[in-house]
Automatic annotation (TrEMBL):
Organism: Pistacia integerrima
Name the UniProt record assigns to this protein: Uncharacterized protein
Domain of life where this protein originates: Eukaryota
Length: 363
């Protein structure tokens, strides 16, 4: 709500003529309580969530060959009812979890100083603040996502989001209710550190949601490469495909978190090698080497990575069988005793169980 009776009073208060945008804002918000303006967020959330994934859905249903070349996992095709079910589930969680959270967070929004009045922020202020919000959310979100991939975090919370091994736009906010709450923290942190105007605050959540829908869309369109450091759909798709065992690609928007902490090694190797004509065995060994450098014994994680090549089970086992001697030899620790993927030594039984799991010992 604005503390001016009319436009003239507002101009007198600011000591200048209002800009066109400010006049629109005055006419729209002058008689609305701040709580009502704050509550717009849930309307925007539902509106943009319903609207932005629609073009991706139409593309998916069209099965157009021209567009299919941009699909990251072309073998997976979703039906309308598949996507609609996801939409329904997410809308339910918006109304049950996000709506009440929005209402309850109103005093906090007031406390941190999100302003609703005049003047409106300049374009530079708006862009700068949005940039900081993206960076803060990306960095903190990276660590929260890594935590969600611990055994406890994954089994109790994050497995719901990973139900989609080939994600779709509608699945961007598809998650356990507690994950929605937890990920709210990095999203609110930017505005809490550098509070701005409520328009900036609205825009932040709208853009962040649009970005999440794009990275989950399953389509990597060429224009996304013009956004600096943008992770894009392929980057996050890899994370979903690998699934539970994934130790790669935790960043949500950009890629610097994974680059800084080395959690994109498997993915980068995959990108390099998948662009070359290279035999399956060499491919696996290379990936294994990358992963081993990061996680010690690479057997367990290697499996999760080479599954992402979408090889048939037979081909996978065939390749794994050919490399069995190599894996068996390197799975031993330096003192000559057998070791297993979890780092224990001297437990051949456990090692065999794990290598059986990876398919390496099935030949
Ligand atoms: Zn994940
Ligand atoms: Zn995801």
């Amino acid at each position: 709500m604005l503390p001016y009776l009319n436009l003239q009073a507002a101009e007198a208060g600011l000591g200048r003529e209002l800009s066109f945008a400010e006049k629109i804002w005055f006419n729209y918000s002058a008689n609305k309580h701040d709580f009502v303006l704050h509550s717009h967020n849930i309307i925007f959330l539902c509106f943009f969530y319903s609207l932005v994934p629609l073009p991706y859905m139409l593309v998916e249903l069209s099965r157009s060959k021209k567009i299919m070349k941009y699909k990251v996992q072309p073998k997976v095709q979703r039906s309308f009812w598949d996507m609609f079910k996801c939409y329904k589930d997410v809308m339910k969680s918006f109304l049950i979890v996000v709506g009440p959270l929005q209402i309850l967070s109103y005093p906090t929004i007031n406390l941190i100083g999100i302003r609703t009045g005049l003047p409106l922020p300049s374009l530079w202020e708006l862009l700068l603040q949005l940039g900081v919000y993206f960076l803060v959310e990306d960095y903190v979100g990276y660590w929260v996502h890594r935590w969600l991939h611990t055994k406890w975090g994954y089994e109790n919370i994050h497995h719901v989001h990973h139900e989609y091994r080939a994600p779709i736009g509608f699945a961007a906010p598809y998650a356990h209710w507690s994950e929605i709450l937890i990920l709210g923290f990095p999203a609110f942190l930017g505005p809490a550190l550098i509070p701005g105007h409520i328009i900036t605050y609205w825009l932040w959540f709208i853009l962040r949601q649009m970005e999440a829908i794009d990275t989950h869309s399953g389509y990597e369109f060429p224009w996304t490469k013009y956004i600096p450091f943008y992770a894009g759909a392929k980057f996050h798709d890899y994370h979903h495909y690998v699934g539970r065992q994934s130790h790669s690609n935790f960043s949500s928007v950009f890629t610097y978190g994974d680059y800084l902490y080395g959690t994109d090694k498997g993915y980068r190797c995959y990108m390099v090698l998948s662009n070359k004509k290279i035999s399956g065995g060499v491919l696996l060994r290379k990936i294994w080497e990358w992963e081993k450098g990061l996680y010690g014994d690479g057997n367990w994680n290697m499996f999760s990575v080479y599954r992402s090549f979408d090889l048939s089970e037979n081909r996978l086992l065939n390749i794994a069988g050919r490399w069995r001697p190599f894996f068996t030899q390197t799975a031993r620790s330096t003192d000559g005793k057998p070791s297993c993927a979890n780092g224990d030594t001297g437990n051949m039984k456990e090692h065999c169980r794990l290598t059986t799991f990876t398919g390496v010992d099935r030949f």
